[in-house]
Amino acid sequence: MKRKHKRLSFVLVALVLLAGAVGLMLVAFEEKIVFFYGPSDVLEKAPPADKRLRVGGLVEKGSIEKTAGSTVVAFRITDINATVPVTYDGILPDLFREGQGVVTEGYYRNGVFEADEVLAKHDENYMPPEVADALKKSGQWQHMKDQLEESGQIEKKKK
Fold first, then answer.
1. What CA–CA distance (Å, rounded) separates 80 from 8?
2. Nearest to residue 103, comparing CAs of 84, 123, 124, 77?
């Protein structure tokens, strides 16, 4: 074999090994990836029941129902266009309340999102970026912002 052919075969073997390593990494990461959905996306696409995902939006006013003598809480997340019912068994974050941005992580089964983690905003005007993007995508961002300002849930920006 000529020297040039040895070098070429070495490069080809290296590329095949590199492609194999990248393929294995992608397969491993695919199991750990958690996709973000807004309520409209969840109702449109109906993700598989075994797929872990994040659902974010605003906690709908008047929707929080706590089970007496239990840590189970039911509430609804909305992006104005759609609403997804959520159940959560655990202690909610201190900043969790109606009308605030929230991101939940868990599984969507039988028309109910079963959350095993709830993340709430961390200051008065913060909204999780995914939630803001979902509201902007649905065309409800400015409308929602105006509604929240009118209801006193967020402060109006001073000019």
1. 59
2. 77
As a whole number of angstroms, the distance between CA 53 and CA 107 comes to 6
User: Residue 62 and residue 68: Cα distance in Å, rounded?
Assistant: 17
Q: What would the two tokens of residue 18 be?
A: 């590199």
- Yes or no: say if 113 and 104 are a contact pair by the CB < 8 Å rule: yes
Residue pair 97/68 in contact (Cβ under 8 Å)? The answer is no
- Interatomic CA distance for residues 80 and 77, integer angstroms: 9
Residues 80 and 131 both lie in one domain = yes
Kindly report, residue by residue over 136-154, the tens digit of the pLDDT: 776 655 555 565 566 554 4
> Are 21 and 39 within one domain?
no
